[in-house]
């Protein structure tokens, strides 16, 4: 990559000129804006949420309710819709850190960089920091760990997203008023992760042991010494009330990667949903000087990496329920509120159509899945540990019937001989393969870095529903943004992701 860069210098220079040009695609509307300044700003970001993720959710809801092919999400009811490009400075297909930086600062940066210029030396001011300077109260909410790339780009400045510990120190240094959702990944220092640290969304990474190399001052204690109160129980969360300030509220039950459990796996009455964290944010942040709240639906991306359509759709629905809370607030303050619903990039190359299902769409079949790929992978891992060489394919078939409906003719989910063969091959792989799947492995195309049996079950159900996948990674499809309220008109059109915070900065100037 690096010596490539040298050879490509003249081309890069031209590209940079293009970038500069594109990123000011709509300066006239922005510069000539004469409207009001929004007092309350909601900035929702669906991580990995392209047009097809939100449309799949609408098609699914339409199918299970049966009244029309599409049931519109709250986010798509907004009067203003725009699209933007997402590329990073050093890669056409962006990542969450570079895309988050663009959406938080108005500057393009390099892959993995958290709100610093592409050189990884120069910090870039974020819209959340500017809002704080303008006396807005600031909230940062996410369904994944609160030090993960997207939320981090709003308060941290670090050369790479993997510096979770330093990011968590930046968190309490920010002085923002409300952090909520998932926990912190490495509160005792990044040294606790061994060099082969597993990717948090890889099934084989689940439960990987941590090797504590060097303990640092716990970043939660540091946050407390800086005046934050940390709440991590249901009771404590419920008791948070208007006037409580400098709060870090994390989910009572954290799943893999210190994230909220998937919406499909959440237990009513035991877990706190993204909508509840958002509603609490409104309660705590509402004040005469206004607020800025960023809310990330972070696991749309994770489930899309795993090609798990039912879980993706439920994550989009969870985000839309959080949007509904903002919309209810907007209805009370329509002349003072702006709501944006954006995304950072598309993940998985999700398509509402698949070669094997031709023109058939049967999105309703996805309702028979009752567990996320993560939950199902754990069951397979447990089974493998218990049964060892006694593992039987008939048991595995029972498990996909129970959790995906696969093989249940009464649900319209009969398995063909070919599908049974696919499941059998994958099951044998799951029971015998112990390494993490690498991109160069011949099986990567089939299973990505996930448990082979689980990802195969997800694929078969997706295909039966008429959903196709092209990747276990991100794609470069332009991303939709929706806007309602004060200044929404600035978000019309086709522009670059860096224009989103530039518009916001203009609005609160
Ligand atoms: Zn992302």
TrEMBL record:
SMART domains: alkPPc. Residues 1-25 form the signal peptide. The keyword Signal applies. It comes from the Bacteria. InterPro entries: Alkaline_phosphatase (IPR001952), Alkaline_phosphatase_core_sf (IPR017850). It holds the Pfam family Alk_phosphatase. Keywords: Phosphoprotein, Signal. Belongs to the alkaline phosphatase family. This is Alkaline phosphatase. It comes from Paralabilibaculum antarcticum.
């Amino acid at each position: 990559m690096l010596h490539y860069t040298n050879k490509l210098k003249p081309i890069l220079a031209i590209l940079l000129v293009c970038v500069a040009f594109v990123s000011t695609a709509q300066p006239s509307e922005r510069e000539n804006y004469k409207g009001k300044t929004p007092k309350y700003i909601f900035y929702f970001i669906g991580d990995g949420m392209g047009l097809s993720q939100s449309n799949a959710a609408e098609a699914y809801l339409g199918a299970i309710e049966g009244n029309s092919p599409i049931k519109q999400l709250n986010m798509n009811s907004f009067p203003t819709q725009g699209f933007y490009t997402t590329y990073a400075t050093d890669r056409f297909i962006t990542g969450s850190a570079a895309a988050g930086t663009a959406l938080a600062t108005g500057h393009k940066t390099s892959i993995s960089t958290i709100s610093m210029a592409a050189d990884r030396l120069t910090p870039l001011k974020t819209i959340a920091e500017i809002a704080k300077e303008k006396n807005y109260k600031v909230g940062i909410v996410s369904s994944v760990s609160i030090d993960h790339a997207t939320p981090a780009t709003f308060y941290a400045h670090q050369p790479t997203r993997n510096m979770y510990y330093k990011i968590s120190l930046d968190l309490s240094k920010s002085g923002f008023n409300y952090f909520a959702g998932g926990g912190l990944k490495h509160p005792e220092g990044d040294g606790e992760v061994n060099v082969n640290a597993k990717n948090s969304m890889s099934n084989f990474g689940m439960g990987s042991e941590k090797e504590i190399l060097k303990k640092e001052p716990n970043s939660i204690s540091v946050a407390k010494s800086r005046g934050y109160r940390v709440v991590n129980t249901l009771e404590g969360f419920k008791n948070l009330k208007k006037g409580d300030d400098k709060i870090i509220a994390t989910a009572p039950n954290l799943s893999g990667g210190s994230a909220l459990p998937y919406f499909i796996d959440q237990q009513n009455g035991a877990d706190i949903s993204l909508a509840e964290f958002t509603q609490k944010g409104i309660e705590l942040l509402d004040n005469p000087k206004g607020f800025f709240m960023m809310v990330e639906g972070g696991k749309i991306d994770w489930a899309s990496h795993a090609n798990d359509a039912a879980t993706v759709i439920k994550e989009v629905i969870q985000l839309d329920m959080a949007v509904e809370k903002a919309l209810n607030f907007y209805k009370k303050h329509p002349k003072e509120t702006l709501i944006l619903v954006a995304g950072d990039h598309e993940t998985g190359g999700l398509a509402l159509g698949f070669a094997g299902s031709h023109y058939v769409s049967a999105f309703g079949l996805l309702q028979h899945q009752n567990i996320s790929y993560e939950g199902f992978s754990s069951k397979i891992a447990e089974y493998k540990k218990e049964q060892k060489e006694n593992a039987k394919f008939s048991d595995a078939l029972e498990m996909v019937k129970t959790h995906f409906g696969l093989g249940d003719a009464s649900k319209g989910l009969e398995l063909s001989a070919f599908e049974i063969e696919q499941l059998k091959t994958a099951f044998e792989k799951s029971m015998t393969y112990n390494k993490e799947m690498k991109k160069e492995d011949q099986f990567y195309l089939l299973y990505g870095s996930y448990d082979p049996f689980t990802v195969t079950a997800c694929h078969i159900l997706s295909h039966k529903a008429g959903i196709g996948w092209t990747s276990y990674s991100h794609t470069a499809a332009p991303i939709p943004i929706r806007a309602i309220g004060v200044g929404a008109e600035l978000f019309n059109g086709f522009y670059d992701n860096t224009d989103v915070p530039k518009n916001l900065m203009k609005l609160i100037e």
